[in-house]
Recover the amino acids of this structure.
């Protein structure tokens, strides 16, 4: 996904194009890793010194709700990344050092379902954490 595609998706949903939103999406383009919200704030404040943490968080969650960004929690804080180009249901390996991700093209839910007979599963999230080859 590129900046224009992301902003067009927001426009189609009735959201305004703002310079802050544009800059947030720019930060994520060409990054194949999760980035902490506080890191995004620091980068945005270089261009928009008066922008608040609340404004950044609201925009990050809006972009997540509209499936432009994906979110996870690493070391007790929210991290975000641009949504995958991988089509279909998948999961991720996430490096706990650098935040880089690798798509996992299968889902373990079939095996897990065997152990949850009678349970009604509504949704799931499956992530694997560890060190990537570069950080290992």
């Amino acid at each position: 996904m590129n900046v224009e595609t992301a902003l067009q998706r927001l426009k189609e949903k009735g959201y305004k194009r703002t310079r802050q939103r544009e800059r947030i999406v720019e930060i994520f383009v060409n990054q194949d890793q999760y980035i902490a919200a506080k890191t995004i704030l620091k980068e945005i404040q270089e261009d928009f010194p008066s922008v608040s943490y609340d404004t950044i968080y609201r925009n990050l969650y809006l972009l997540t709700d509209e499936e432009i960004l994906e979110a996870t929690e690493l070391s007790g804080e929210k991290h975000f990344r641009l949504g995958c180009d991988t089509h279909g249901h998948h999961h991720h390996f996430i490096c706990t050092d650098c935040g880089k991700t690798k798509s996992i093209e299968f889902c373990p839910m079939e095996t897990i379902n065997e152990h949850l007979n009678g349970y009604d599963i509504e949704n799931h999230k499956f992530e694997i954490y560890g060190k990537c080859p570069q950080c290992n």
Observations:
- The chain has a mean pLDDT of 88.
- The domain at 91-130 is CATH 3.30.1490.190 (Dna Ligase; domain 1).
- The chain has five helices and six strands.
